[in-house]
Amino acid sequence: MSGFTQHFHTAPDGIKTAFRHYEPDQPSGALPVVCLHGLTRNSKDFEDVAPRIAASGRRVIAIDVRGRGLSDRGTPPESYSPQVYVEDLFGLLDQEGIERFVAVGTSMGGIMTMIAAAMRPDMLAGAVLNDIGPELDPAGLNRIAGYVGRAKGPMDSWQEAAAAVRAVNGEAFPDETGEEFWLAFARRTCRELPNGRVELDYDPQIAAPFREPEGAAPPDMWPLFDALSLVPVLGIRGEISDLLSREVLTRMADRHPRFTAVEVPRVGHAPLLTEAPARDAIDAFLRDID
Question: What is the pLDDT of residues 237-286, one digit of tens each?
């Protein structure tokens, strides 16, 4: 499997965005893939997915959106918005000389993908939307609002971190009862401080724009989804997801002329993309895009 090199892009406001670059050992000439993570996650989410794609001959970039992972924490908090994240993405792609790409977007990364398609439609050649759509279930939104940015502070050990992430994500992975799985999950979502303690690997201020005023209507994202109508789209849903309903996934398929839907059994929000149904669907999807 291909390793990665670490790189950075500096936005006009001075914020550095970190990204992992996976270069294939045997380039195929196919379009590169850009991996975009969810709200509280980072490029480590794709540490199994990206090497697999790179091994097929594609260049892969996995991004730490500002405020996460090795990227700078952003100030003011208003800079933590999908619009700004996409502007950072375009700057990074311009720096790397990437004019056209395939996106793999999990949750918030899928929203970024839709925004990118609306802003610069010629750049996107295809999209994988992982457990995200143009309508979000209030149950999932309320659950996310209940934990994002609310951590009590650094934890004493990786074992404590594993217990903490399991408390938040355990219902999404009911069959994962082993300590090894949750330790690996913690190492992807947390970081170790110089004093040996462990904290979640994101700026708590990312939650500020996420919390809408009470009674505020959610934005209509169907026009953003429609911006993907000219490219193939693979929609992946966790069978027990509380954010993307089966009904919305069906409506997406009915509305889009080149849409493929796949469901991952016994998984909630969001599939890791290492599950066999998701993995096989992504492999097949990419084989059809040069």
Answer: 999 999 999 999 999 999 999 999 999 999 999 999 999 999 999 999 99
pTM above 0.85, yes or no: yes
166-224 pLDDT tens trace: 999 999 999 999 999 999 999 999 999 999 999 999 999 998 866 665 555 678 999 99
- Distances from the Cα of 167 to the Cα of 186, 237, 280, angstroms: 11, 22, 29
Helices 158-169 and 179-189: angle between axes, nearest 10 degrees: 90
